[in-house]
Amino acid sequence: MRERGRPTAGDDETTDALASLTIADRQGEEATRRPGRFAGIGAVVARNRLLWIVAVAALVSLVAGLVIGRFAVSPEDAAAGAAPPAPGLITAPVGFGALSTDVTLRGEVAFADPVEVTVDTTTIQGAAVVTGRVPAAGAELAPLSIALEVAGRPVIVLPGELPAYRTLRFGVSGPDVVQFKTAMRSIGLDAGDPTDDEFDEAAAQSVTELYAQAGYAAPAIDDGDAAVRAAEEAVASSTQALAAARKELAAAQAGPSAARAASTRRTGSRSPICRTPSPWPSSPGRSWARSPRRASSARRSTRRSRR
C-alpha cells in the first residue's frame, strides 16, 4: 500500500508529462492565434488602401515643402541679402523747358459786401433825378462805363482806391489828383505827369476827352474857374519869361568877368588869398579869392584888428 500524502516516483513522472503537454498546447494555441492577427491588419490595409495612399502623399508633400522653403531663395530675398554695388557716376540728359505746377484750390463763391456809392449832386441845377443808364442786377462795371445817369449827366466809373471826396478844379492838388491822372492813363487818356499832384491844363483837357468817349458833353466851366485858370496860365507864362530873362542876365554878367579874368592871367598878376570873416556861412578855414583892391582893404582891416 502507498502512504497517503507522499508522492512517489511514478507520480513525479506523470506530473512532468502533464506539464509538458500543457506547455505544448499553449504554444500551439499561440501559434494558431498569431497568423490571425496579421491577417486582420492586412484586411484593414486592403480595405483603406486609398486613404493610406492619400495620407502618404500628403506627408511626402509636407516634407518636400519644408525642405524647399528652407533652402529655396526668391530673387527679392537674394537682392536684399546681396552686397551693395560699388558707387559710380550717375548721368542724366539736361533738358530746357517751362516749369509748371498745377494747384487745385477749393473755395466758396459768394457775393461781396455791398458798397454804398454817394453821388455829388451839388453842381447839378435843379432836382437830382435818376434819368437813365441804370445797370441791371449782376452787371459788371468796368472802367469808363456808366454807373448811373443823374439829371442827364453821367456817373463815369474810374479805377482807384481813394473815394472822390471833392470836385477836381483847375489848380487844386492832392492825392486824389494823382489817382485821377493814373486812372486816366490806364484807360488811354493823357492827363499829364502822374507824379504831379496838381490839376493842371493837361488834366483839364483829359476831362473833356473823357466825356467825349462816354458820349456826353464836358461840364461847363463857370466864370470864377475860368478867371482862375486864366490867371494861373498868366502866372505860369510870366514865371517862364522871368526865368529866361534871369538866364540871359547871368550869361551877360558872366561875359565881362571871364574877360577880366583872362586879362589878369595874361599880365601875370596874382590875386592875394586871405581868410577874413564873412557874413555868409562858410566852413572853417575856407579861402576866398578877392580882387587886388579888396584884398588890400581886407589886409588892412586884419592888421588893425591885430593891433
TrEMBL record:
Identify the domain of life. Bacteria
Q: Where is the composition biased (Low complexity)?
A: 252-290
Skewed-composition ranges (Basic residues)? 291-307
Q: Which UniProt keywords apply?
A: Membrane, Transmembrane, Transmembrane helix
**Region feature (Disordered):** 252-307
Kindly list the residue ranges recorded as spanning the membrane: 50-73
Name it.
Peptidoglycan binding domain-containing protein
